Amino acid sequence: MFHTEICDLLGIKYPIIQGGMAWVATAELVAAVSNAGGLGIIGAGNAPAEAVREEIRKTRSLTDKPFGVNVYFMSPFVDEVMKVIIEERVPVVTTGAGNPGKYIPNLKEAGIKIIPVIASVALAQRLEKMGVDAVIAEGMECGGHIGDITTMALVPQVVDAVKIPVIAAGGIADARGFLAALTLGAKGVQMGTRFICSKECTVHENYKQAVIKAGDRSTVVTGRPTGHPVRVLKNKLSRKFELLEEKGANPKEYEALGAGKLKAAVEGDAEYGSLMAGQIAGLVNEIKPVKEIIEEIVNDARVLLDGMVSGKKWR
Amino acid sequence: MEILDRVKKIIADQLGVDEDEVVPEASFIDDLGADSLDIVELIMAFEEEFDLEIPDEDAEKIKTVQDVIDYIKNHTS
């Protein structure tokens, strides 16, 4: 059930992908997701290439299943990280915050599947022409760096515009979101926030508890004037960002305030750390093992789907 | 129609700016309010209008209206 083209493309059991969150998606979480039948993705973030290599090798020691690395295009180490990925023969690469066009030929030559995260129809079409294997259409409900369009509006428009499979991301954390995404024409989903609150995720308990505590209106978007807006949970740091915005600060001041704050959050500073999370955080109320998260989604989706036809109530 | 006029029309349509603002020295990002996704759309529109393929390496170098005009002149017969 729910076996899609994405499962065949990536060699996975369920079409569920874990977002490559910088600092958050480490080998432990990645391997747990891949072992549970999804696709785990290491978040390379701003890490230097050799640190990424270590994480790749550690992941390999924990799973023999396919996994990926997310390359963040605002990192100063993109060239070196791409080189490591090719040397280590990582099965899948996802990319974010930029256009991966010029790396596509080398990745393809190495037999690596390439799946860019996109937030517009035009970029999806352009990347399809360059030969990417699939795209992740990510709506602005997601945590971290965001685009302008919601998942509900973006996914079907991308699905209609390209022939390659589309994976939906942003605002998905349970079977309802999963099924909705498939209904919009996606062949799989990527989730980030849901996996932060997994047993295997190595972020500090304070970060997880902040997500658990979050409600529907707990996230804010900071840094809009810089052209790189980021969604985070409201806290003292996000308030500082708002004050910068009010006084019309320049991009350097944003950069200075943001530097090292995601790492701080991952290490437990819930007040002044950058607690990246999506709008769906309000739906995430429990820390569970990864396997349970994934299986619950697939099993519930089946019940839900049957219920739509038979009228039987879900839960 | 002249290349300049066709380019102007595309830019004005895509970015919702007045054609008068689309002067050769105007930068897409700094003067015309475009973001990186707008530029992808513009590049695709130029490709279609002028029957071109603009690879990413070249697209990255296109910053102003004049850059586009030069590119089109050099890559069409």
Automatic annotation (TrEMBL), chain A:
InterPro entries: Aldolase_TIM (IPR013785), Enoyl_ACP_red-II_put (IPR017569), NMO (IPR004136). The keyword Oxidoreductase applies. The keyword Plastid does not apply. Keywords: Flavoprotein, FMN, Oxidoreductase. It comes from the Bacteria. GO terms for molecular function: nitronate monooxygenase activity. Nitronate monooxygenase that uses molecular oxygen to catalyze the oxidative denitrification of alkyl nitronates. Acts on propionate 3-nitronate (P3N), the presumed physiological substrate. Probably functions in the detoxification of P3N, a metabolic poison produced by plants and fungi as a defense mechanism. This is Probable nitronate monooxygenase.
TrEMBL record, chain B:
GO terms for molecular function: acyl binding; acyl carrier activity; phosphopantetheine binding. 4'-phosphopantetheine is transferred from CoA to a specific serine of apo-ACP by AcpS. This modification is essential for activity because fatty acids are bound in thioester linkage to the sulfhydryl of the prosthetic group. It is found in: Cytoplasm. Pfam families: PP-binding (PF00550). It comes from the Bacteria. One of its GO terms (cellular component) is cytosol. GO terms for biological process: lipid A biosynthetic process. InterPro entries: ACP, ACP-like_sf, PKS_PP-bd, PP-bd_ACP, Ppantetheine_attach_site. Keywords: Cytoplasm, Fatty acid biosynthesis, Fatty acid metabolism, Lipid biosynthesis, Lipid metabolism, Phosphopantetheine, Phosphoprotein. Residues 1-76 form the Carrier domain. The modification O-(pantetheine 4'-phosphoryl)serine is found at residue 36. Pathway: Lipid metabolism; fatty acid biosynthesis. HAMAP family: Acyl_carrier. Belongs to the acyl carrier protein (ACP) family. NCBIfam families: acyl_carrier, PRK00982.1-2, PRK00982.1-3, PRK00982.1-4, PRK00982.1-5. Carrier of the growing fatty acid chain in fatty acid biosynthesis. PANTHER family: ACYL CARRIER PROTEIN, CARRIER DOMAIN-CONTAINING PROTEIN. This is Acyl carrier protein. It comes from Thermosediminibacter litoriperuensis. The gene is acpP.
